[in-house]
Specification:
The chain is mainly β. It contains three helices and twelve strands.
């Protein structure tokens, strides 16, 4: 069973923290339908620790890239505080349909959850939307490249709302390519990568920094927007060693 699952790569490991390169399509947590998830790999990620490591934040199943796990209970608590207080610097890469007119900007648009009953076709359920009465949500963005009808963006969320980047991009008029919920499904899948992360240290620890490589399903769209296939970071070690 495990051999059939997409395998995360370890980008960073110390005594307290792991950072994985999570493949697109692999949820961080096992859902009610018992889908494969990062949880299937936690035993292999124990590396002699008493407790299994646990994800310290959310990352959408279809989003590839940096996922931080705590290896001890104190580390998980410290990481949880850092994410909750907005002290973790996150940078995402996205390819969007359409393009901003400016080269950089800030989106300040509160978000709220909208739930609708599912119909016989299965349409409906929940999604996020821009709502003046919702929770504060702020995203910085910058254009890194442009192509025919598309743009390559760097997105830095100042807040960590569910689907924040996907909703903000769609509301701005340039949905993330391949987003079936807020844009349009594409054969290449969601073009969103949690590219890099910087977690501040605690109790005298150094900050943790990790960068995820561009996944295969995003390389063509990024290249069409000017990405030159620069030398990419690689995992520091295989998952099982």
């Amino acid at each position: 069973m495990r051999a059939l699952l997409p395998e995360p790569t370890i980008l960073y490991r110390d005594e307290a923290v792991l950072v994985l390169d999570k493949p697109a399509g692999l949820p961080a947590h096992r859902g009610p339908r018992a889908r494969a998830s990062v949880e299937d790999w936690l035993e292999a990620l124990r590396f002699g620790k008493r407790h299994l490591p646990q994800p310290a934040h959310r990352l959408d199943a279809d989003t590839a890239g940096c996922l931080v796990l705590g290896r001890t209970k104190p580390a998980l608590a410290a990481l949880g505080r850092a994410f909750a207080e907005g002290r973790v610097a996150k940078t995402y890469w996205a390819v969007v349909a359409g393009a901003p007119e400016a080269d950089a900007g800030l989106i300040d648009a509160p978000l709220a959850k909208l739930s609708t009953p599912k119909d016989r076709s299965g349409a409906g359920g929940w999604r996020m939307r821009v709502d003046p009465e919702g929770q504060m949500a702020v995203t910085e963005w910058r254009v890194l490249g442009r192509g025919a009808g598309h743009a390559w963006l760097s997105l830095s969320p100042r807040t960590g709302r569910t689907h924040q980047l996907r909703v903000h991009a769609a509301d701005a008029g340039w949905p993330i390519l391949g987003d079936p919920l807020y844009g349009r499904a594409e054969a290449g899948g969601l073009q969103l990568l949690a590219r890099s992360i910087v977690v501040p240290g605690w109790d005298g620890r150094e900050a943790v920094t990790a960068t995820a490589p561009v996944p295969g399903h995003m390389r063509a769209a990024l290249a069409a927007c000017g990405w030159d296939g620069m030398v990419e970071p690689r995992g520091i070690e295989p998952l099982t060693s």
